[in-house]
Amino acid sequence: MQQKRQEIRSLTGLRGAAACLVVFYHLSQRAINFPNAFNYIIGRGYLSVDVFFILSGFVMALSYRKLFDGAALRRAYPVFLLRRLARTYPLYAAVILVVSSQDVRHAIQHHVLAPDQVAQKVAANLLFLQGVGYPARVVGPSWSVAVEFVAYLLFPLLLAATARRPRALLSATVAYMCLLLAAYLPNGVLLQGFSGPLDLTVSDQGPFIVRCLPVVRCLTEFTIGLCLFSFVGSKEFSFASPAKSFAVFAAILATLALPYSDFAFVPAAALLIAVLLHDNPVTKAFASRPVFFLGEISYAIYLWHFQLFQVQTSLFAKLSRHMGVSSAEACAMVCYWIVLIAISYASFRMIEVPGRRYVRKLEQRFFPAEDAALLAQERAASAAIDHTDQP
Questions:
Q1: What is the mean pLDDT of residues 354-358?
Q2: Residue-level pLDDT at 200
Q3: Rounded to two decimals, what is the model's pTM?
Q4: Among 42, 139, 312, 318, which is disulfide-ready with 336 (CB 3.0 to 4.6 Å)?
C-alpha cells in the first residue's frame, strides 16, 4: 500500500507531465524541430487537456462528494465555488490583466481596437465568457479554464448523476457517446480539429454551437472523471501489479503515437489515473520529486507558456547568427524552459498560494462548519481509496 502523500503526489505529477506536453505541442506548431522519435507524441499534445478534464472530475469527486452528502446544497455549493475560485482565479486574473495591458498599448498605438472594445474583451475573459461562445481570447490556453468553470457550476447535478455505480456506468456511457457526437458535424462528417478529432478549442469563427463544442468536450470528460471515482476500489480497477501499470502506460503512449486514436485515449487516460492510485513503478515515477514539482506549478506553466514564446524566438534569432541552427534552437529552448519554470514558480509562490490563503480565511469566517468538514475530509481523502490495493 502506498502512502497517502504519495497518492496525491502521483496525481499532481500527472498534471505536471500533461502541462509540459502541452507546451511542447505548442512549440512544435512554431516550427520547432524535435527528434523524430518524439514528433508523433508531441504532435498529439493537445490531448493533455483531456487529461486535465478527466483528472479534475476525479479529484472533485474525491474532495467534495462528502461535503455535498453531509451539508445542505445552499451552504455546500458556495463553499465549493469559493474553493475553486481560490484555486484558479488569482493567477488567471493576473495573467489576463498582464497580457491585456500589452494588448491595450498595441491597440492604442496601431488603432486596432477602440478602448471600449478592449475593455469589453478583457471583461468577458475575466468572467470566463470566452469558454461559452464569446469569440475573443486574451490568453490562448485560457479557454480550458473557462469551460472547466462551467463544469464547476454544474457540479451538484453531475455529482448526483454519478453517485452510484450503476448510475455512474450509464453516465459514463452517455458522456462518451456525447463526446463522439461532439466531433461530428450535423452532416455526419468527422469534424477535424486543428490537430485531431478532439482538438476542439474555442474558435473565433463559425456558428455559436460550434464555438461551444469545447464545453461539451469538458463536461463529458469531467463526468467520466466523476464516474471513475465511483469504480475505484473494485477488483476491475486494481492496478497494483507492475505488469498492469506498464500495460496501461504503454496504451497511453500508443494512443498518443497513433493518428486518429483520440477516442481511445480518453478511456486510457482514465485508466492511468486509476493506476496512479496504487503502489507500482508508474506511480513512483509520477510521484518523484521533479515531476511533482512540475505538477505544483503546472497551472502557471499552462497559463504563461504561450506568452513567453517570444523569449525563445528572440534568443534563437540572436544565437543563430553565431552558431549552427540546431545548436541555437537547443540553447534557445533550454533558456525558454528556465524562464518559464522560474516565472511559473514565482507565480505559484506569490499569487496562487497567497490567493488560496486569503479565500480560505473568508471561508473560515462565513462558512466555519463547512470549512471544518472539508478539512476533515481532506485528511481522510486518501482513506477512501486506500483499500484499492487489497485483494
A1: 87
A2: 78
A3: 0.89
A4: 312
In 3-state terms, the chain is what percent helix, strand and coil (to 5)? 75, 0, 25
Q: Which of 209, 205, 179, 208 is nearest to 194 (CA)?
A: 205
Distance, in Å, from the CA atom of 30 to the CA atom of 227, rounded to the nearest integer, reads 37
User: Pick from 235, 270, 277, 234: which is nearest to 252 by CA?
Assistant: 270
Residue indicated by cell numbers 483520440: 262
Span between the terminal Cα atoms of the chain, in Å: 11
What pLDDT, on the 0 to 100 scale, is given for residue 150? 94
236 three-class SS: helix
Amino acid at 182: A
Cell 481532506 locates to 378
Contact 197, 210 (CB under 8 A): no
Residue 207 makes CB contacts below 8 A (sequence gap 6+) with none
Distance CA 321, CA 262 (A): 41
d(CA 36, CA 47): 19
pLDDT at residue 189 greater than cutoff 90: no
pLDDT of residue 140: 84
Euclidean distance between CA atoms 183 and 176, whole angstroms: 11
- CA dihedral over 302, 306, 311, 317, signed as positive or negative: positive
Distance CA 330, CA 325 (A): 9
Identify any residues that bridge with 190 across adjacent strands, giving them in sequence order.
184
The answer to whether the beta carbons of residues 225 and 53 sit under 8 Å apart is yes
Residue 129 is given by DSSP the state: G
Among 141, 145, 143, which residue's Cα sits nearest to residue 340? 141
Q: Does residue 3 have a pLDDT over 50?
A: no
C-alpha cell at 230: 465511483
Which amino acid would we find at residue 12?
T
DSSP 190: B
Number of helices followed by number of strands (H, E) in the chain: 19, 0
pLDDT band (50, 70, 90) for residue 180 = confident
Rounded distance between C-alpha atoms, residue 149 and residue 259, angstroms: 30
Rounded to whole angstroms, how far apart are CA atoms 323 and 104? Answer: 37
